[in-house]
Amino acid sequence: QKEVEQNSGPLSVPEGAIASLNCTYSDRGSQSFFWYRQYSGKSPELIMSIYSNGDKEDGRFTAQLNKASQYVSLLIRDSQPSDSATYLCAVSRQAGTALIFGKGTTLSVSS
Amino acid sequence: GAVVSQHPSRVICKSGTSVKIECRSLDFQATTMFWYRQFPKQSLMLMATSNEGSKATYEQGVEKDKFLINHASLTLSTLTVTSAHPEDSSFYICSARASLDRVPGGYTFGSGTRLTVV
């Protein structure tokens, strides 16, 4: 399988801080990029999707994509304890093909 | 949204027996279903892609004779773990592709099955 790499963490930030999650991918043909949140024993929940270079903002979340560097990141502003979870980066080569997931980064937000 | 119902949520079986996991699309037709396996603190690893009415495509290293996938209708895909052994204990998740106007991102997931082989 093509590789998607993430720092497994844990990443610990205080409440109200910015959490920065990073991901690199090996398949230069990847077209679609996703961030999911997963709680233990549960299926993933979509946080953000991004398809073109640049930034995409949705509330407290900002996804950044740089296809030349094969890098995608997720910023969480004003982090809350409820944001504590494992964040999975996923990519797909084209519409309709399977998502390839990274190992996930565990985020812990302390109050 | 597009809902995928996955059953059972948990199953414990004896070593050497077979276990069937079902994923059913409730309100849409799932032409393609993806099956993943996740070990503790590991990534979701793609096992196979199943297309309705045709043979599944397995990822390298996944034994097709051990993990039998059937996708006989547009609303049902099953994964059967044959002759299960303790090393098959894992979290199995199915996923289906749905239209973007129904599911943000276009991928919907079952709730997962925790398989424990004793």
Structure summarized in a few sentences:
Chain A has strands at residues 4-6, 11-14, 19-25, 32-38, 45-50, 54-58, 61-66, 71-76, 85-92, 100-101, 105-110. Chain A is an all-beta fold.
Q: Label the structural class of chain B.
A: mainly beta
Distance between the termini of chain A: 39 Å
Low-confidence stretches of chain A: none
Secondary structure: helix percent of chain B: under 10%
Gross morphology of chain A? globular
Largest sheet of chain B: 7 strands, mixed
Describe this structure in words.
The complex is a heterodimer of chains A (111) and B (118). Chain A is mainly beta and 111 residues long. Chain A has strands at residues 4-6, 11-14, 19-25, 32-38, 45-50, 54-58, 61-66, 71-76, 85-92, 100-101, 105-110. With 118 residues, chain B is an all-beta fold. Chain B is globular. The termini of chain B are far apart. Classes of the chains: A mainly beta (111), B mainly beta (118). The A-B interface holds A 1, 4, 8, 34, 41-44, 46, 49, 88, 95-96, 98-104 and B 32, 34, 36, 41-46, 49, 59-60, 91, 93, 95, 97, 104-107, 109-112, 114.
Summarize the SSE layout with pairings.
The complex is a heterodimer of chains A (111) and B (118).
Chain A: E1 4-6, E2 11-14, E3 19-25, E4 32-38, E5 45-50, E6 54-58, E7 61-66, E8 71-76, E9 85-92, E10 100-101, E11 105-110
Chain B: E1 4-7, E2 10-13, E3 19-25, E4 32-38, E5 45-51, E6 57-58, E7 67-73, E8 76-81, E9 90-97, E10 107-109, E11 113-117
Parallel strand pairs in B: 2-11
Antiparallel strand pairs in B: 1-3, 3-8, 4-5, 4-9, 5-6, 7-8, 9-10, 9-11
